[in-house]
Amino acid sequence: MTDYSQIYGDYVVVKALENGVTIIGLTRGGTTKFHHSEKLDKGEIMIAQFTEHTSAIKIRGKAELMTKHGRIRTDE
Fold first, then answer.
1. Domain total of the chain
2. Strand partners, 66
3. pLDDT in tens, the chain (76 residues)
4. Start and end of every Tryptophan RNA-binding attenuator protein domain (predicted)?
5. In angstroms, rounded to a whole number, what is the distance separating the alpha carbons of residues 42 and 34?
6. CA angle (47 as vertex; 56, 37 as ends), nearest 5
7. DSSP classification of residue 29
8. Which pTM value belongs to this model?
9. Which domain holds residue 47?
10. CATH number, domain at 42?
């Protein structure tokens, strides 16, 4: 039985600082694959959650990330 409390729960807020910021979700498992992508324009915000299917998130472009660990800005 899977303990989903360890998979679900961590949220990441991504705020686009420019037009065309791309957010890509990557799968869990033996082979990592892209499974979802979104494009954000300047000022748009997306709230993402790690799940049983999503193990990583890749971000392209200028963005600010807000997590329970603090704020991070991409460098470009």
1. 1
2. 13, 71
3. 555 555 556 788 999 999 999 999 888 777 778 788 999 999 999 998 877 777 788 899 999 999 888 999 997 6
4. 9-75
5. 24
6. 55
7. S
8. 0.78
9. 4-73
10. 2.60.40.50
